[in-house]
Design goal:
- The structure is a single chain.
- The chain is an alpha+beta fold and 365 residues long.
- The protein has 2 domains: 138 residues, no CATH class; 156 residues, no CATH class.
- The chain contains 15 helices and 10 strands.
- Helix 1 packs antiparallel against helix 6 and helix 9 runs antiparallel to helix 10.
- The radius of gyration is 27 Å and the shape is elongated.
- The relative contact order is 0.10.
């Protein structure tokens, strides 16, 4: 049985407490405001939050952040109405909120509950549509990772309308358990029954196919890390063989490993560059020193172009490890672990809106 998410449990407990608080004061609020039912009351304060907040693009970090955005959107809506603002139902509710403290208290509790009920959708940064699918692996053994995959007209695509509602952390272990790998141009998937099943495929099929002993060692470090973690589903994927040109069979580059951080969606690449495959020159017999130097220069420029193109197209910063560092892949994995633990993002709240909204008539400015 999957381990219960303690954050979800705690959040549900708070939601229940907020519901109890609303029930305790809703009769008093109805009496003060003159609304005839709780349904009518909630229609006035809860039916338009997506009108006041750009929920498709905002990443909302806390209930306070949500409330401040709601108030700011409400204020802007009134101001934009100009001379007609005072004739609107919106203005009528606004004046009731200014007049009755109990109604303001009810609003804050209600909006806090709205936020917590929609926490997963509101608090996550959503990837751009063009970044919502990635492809990995060797030629003829490549796989796709989408967020809301569906097969239509002979190919895979994301259901764009559902990306925001995806409940798992994007590009995490939980993500791959939810979606599996899609098989390009074929209505088929590679799915996994549990975390050990996925990790076995990750190590012994995808990474093993690369033929790199260094990639294999790091894959084993990752498997051990995930299996011993308290919250394994939230760990970002260690993405092997990220394909620079996407699904195209003919492509220029692959990164050995990539991590996409769950909160801000930053991409960090890890390139393992032993001299034997990335620097050593073969076929130099009979070449002049100048020709050898020119060949070495060409190889170096090719390698640097690879990393620059990854950064320009995908905003992937790559960390490069050479022979001396590759002697101990555990140290390399320790670098990776810095990006495998989710970070808490913070957003500066516009706290002034709280006082401004309730103390001054915004339509008079």
């Amino acid at each position: 049985m999957a381990k219960r998410n303690p954050e979800t449990t705690a959040r549900n407990k708070i939601i229940n407490e907020l519901t109890a608080q609303l029930q305790e004061i809703h009769d008093e609020v109805l009496k003060a405001t003159g609304f005839d039912s709780v349904h009518s009351l909630h229609g006035k304060i809860g039916g338009k939050f997506d009108q006041f907040i750009d929920i498709k693009n905002e990443v909302i970090s806390s209930p306070e952040h949500f409330i401040s955005l709601w108030l700011e959107g409400y204020k802007k809506n009134l101001i934009d109405r100009g001379a007609y603002a005072e004739n609107s139902n919106l203005y009528e509710t606004y004046k009731l909120l200014q007049k009755y403290t109990i109604f303001k208290d009810y609003l804050f509790i209600f909006l806090k509950r709205v936020y917590l009920r929609n926490y997963e959708a509101l608090s996550k940064k959503r990837p751009l549509i063009e970044d919502a699918e990635i492809y990995i692996g060797q030629n003829n053994a490549n796989y796709g990772i989408l967020i809301t995959p569906r097969f239509a007209n002979g190919s895979w695509e994301n259901d764009k309308s559902e990306i925001r509602h995806f409940k798992k952390q994007y590009w995490s272990i939980g993500h791959i358990l939810e979606t599996g790998f899609i098989i390009p141009s074929k209505n088929d998937k590679m799915t996994f029954k549990d975390i050990p099943d996925y990790l076995n495929f990750f190590v012994n099929v995808i990474v093993r196919n690369s033929g790199s002993k260094y990639e294999m060692e790091i894959a084993e470090h990752y498997r051990e890390f995930v299996l011993n973690h308290e919250r394994p589903e939230n760990i970002p994927l260690l993405i092997p063989e990220f394909r620079y040109e996407g699904i195209d069979v003919i492509h220029k580059y692959r990164l050995d490993y990539t991590i996409i951080e769950p909160n801000d969606l930053n991409k960090i690449g890890f390139e393992l560059s032993p001299w034997s495959t990335h620097g050593q020159l073969n076929g130099t017999k009979g070449m002049t020193q100048a020709e050898i130097n020119e060949k070495a220069k060409s190889n170096f420029e090719k390698e640097m172009t690879k990393h620059k193109n990854y950064f320009k197209k995908h905003a992937i910063f790559s960390m490069i490890y050479t022979d001396e560092e590759l002697k101990d892949t555990k140290n390399i994995f320790n670098d990776m672990k810095k990006y495998l633990e989710p970070k808490t993002s913070t957003t500066q709240l516009k706290l002034h809106i709280f006082d401004d909204f309730f103390k001054n008539d915004v339509t008079k400015k």
